[in-house]
């Protein structure tokens, strides 16, 4: 899998356009891989995959606060948000397989941001001390970017807490790079061994458009399910990409048929 971090490295982007987009990338990081970029129809300027990951000059326009959801108000210790009684959200890293241009956490990927944490000690301590928390969401960033041994260590710590019944992995890697699931036997073992009748490991996949559901993506979702992960999908409504009832209906239908029903919209 080859990753690129500059628009100039993307064959479908003309040099003149790449120079303009470089300014966007200097503020809001760009990253993608050859698997995902191959899904783009470069003859269509409105191609949904292109709009999802290729920088756009509009990103430099003023659009409000970087912390659009005021997550700072719900941050209880470094890297942990406790907005809802039963759920704790843990920002385990600040790296994704690719960067969605609409991301409401763009601030996490800027050089001067340190909201995500590499020291999960405070997170373990806080959640262990709050028995009302039954659901832990690992996000960031993308937890499946982490090495499997590191991810397993985190999941095992939370799984050992008697009151934690659900551990969710919020990840777009099933769409960006399904080989992360298909080729990692240790990740498959993590799902198989730690997702039980008493404690569920959820893979919160993130497919925004039916075009992302390739044969490899389908195999990845099936592989996760066959290894006992509970698989669901989540996505926002994105203007020009999936803000069409027919597109959303197709997305929901195809994902449900793969055993990954819509968790929320």
UniProtKB/TrEMBL annotation:
What is the superkingdom listed in this entry's lineage?
A: Bacteria
Listed GO MF terms: 4 iron, 4 sulfur cluster binding; catalytic activity; metal ion binding
Work out whether the entry's keyword set contains rRNA-binding: no
Q: Does the entry feature the keyword Iron-sulfur, yes or no?
A: yes
UniProt keyword list: 4Fe-4S, Iron, Iron-sulfur, Metal-binding, Pyridoxal phosphate, S-adenosyl-L-methionine
Question: Which residues does the UniProt record annotate as the domain Radical SAM core?
Answer: 82-265
An example of a Pfam family matching this protein is: Fer4_12
What name has this protein been given in UniProt? 4Fe-4S cluster-binding domain-containing protein
